[in-house]
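Workshop exercise sheet. Pairs work together: one partner reads the sequence aloud, the other fills in the structure field after running the prediction. Swap roles for the next sheet.
Pair: D.N. / O.F.
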Amino acid sequence: MPLTYPPLLRSPRAPDCTGGYSRRHGVSWASGLAVLASVWCAVAAAQESAPFSRFPYPPAGDFVSELISERVWRVTPTASPLHDDSDVERLSLDDPSNLYTDLAPLTLRTMDATWRSAWSLLGFQGFSMPLLQTQTVFRWDLGLTRARPGLEMPWLHSVPELGAPWIAANVVKAGVDRDLHIAARLSAGRGNELVAANLAVAAQLLREKIEAAEASEETYVGLWSAPLEHMLAARTTNVLTDVETSYLMRVLENELSTRRDPPMSVYGRRQIPTAVRVARAAAAYRSETYAAPFPCSDEGVFVPGVAATSLGDATQTFCFADMIDRRVLAWYTAALRDDLATKLEDPATMASAAGPLIEAVARMRPAAMGAFADDAQDASLDTDVVAAMATRELVWQGRAKAAALTALEELAVDRMCRGSAL
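Structure field:
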């Protein structure tokens, strides 16, 4: 029988299961709310021993930002509110060194008072979920889940244009519509699937923004629909003008520069971070070029002896569906750098129809990278970088202090510096 939750109150306050409200609110319990708090805590305790029998799809609600907000207020500001990245991987994965590792069983080791308080706050905002499911949301948003069809991703039936189920699963996790996936591949041209992924996600982002504006009946929001229309009407490579290509890359660059409350994708699944959306789209394009024997089974599980077992393997193919988002992103950022370096130095390639798109992708620099070299983007899912980006949003909302942001940005800069030195 599904768990039920107490009625939600029109209040930003939430119980911390320790006998009072979160300290940042500075108020005490009223007698009526004391009963409500005990119910919340009893529900939390009951859920601790209720394991999931199948993959629990992460619902809406920005749990990670709520967790960061709670820890920024309660914990030493100079410490990362998400803990060390290697510790997060060690607690989330059976074997972080294995490219196709299973996820570690859900435990309560990371569910401290701030974790529970963040969970309660989401409940008061209307995003109720079982307590254990918050760990799925946490790992989903930090790139610690896979994309196997029928498990993390829904099966897509009768969609031959997206290829085998383990290929289509990457498109689904990228949250890109079928028509835009095909149109971006055509527009970029043969051999340019790594840059085409940027075009596909950029076009999808533009479509989402236009649809959101239409739904809210906004008459003018500064969105330009011509690039979408030209892509979808295309029958040849690169029908976009240089201005249209640059516009789409700015849309993508802006999204890469922020961390917003993850929406639901066109496939009804929680959206993954934008950088991973691009990487998953690229993984789908790359997988479409594979010849038998294939690295994945129909269920999206890697095939031993066929699938590459390390990111540096240049002789075998990858089963991307069985890899966590972080590993797919690591593959993609390295592959894109090599691809761009080769193409930018080839006059014939840059003079071709795909030249403007290649140049526009090479110019993209998400704000989080600042003046760092391109390989700093490899750390975009590191806990220090995620914490700094989320806290920046919280400061703008008046939910965190600037001093905390300064300390966390120093940690993020240090992480990107170390990443560039590797």
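Discussion prompt: Residues 1-53 have pLDDT under 50 and may be disordered. What would you look at next?
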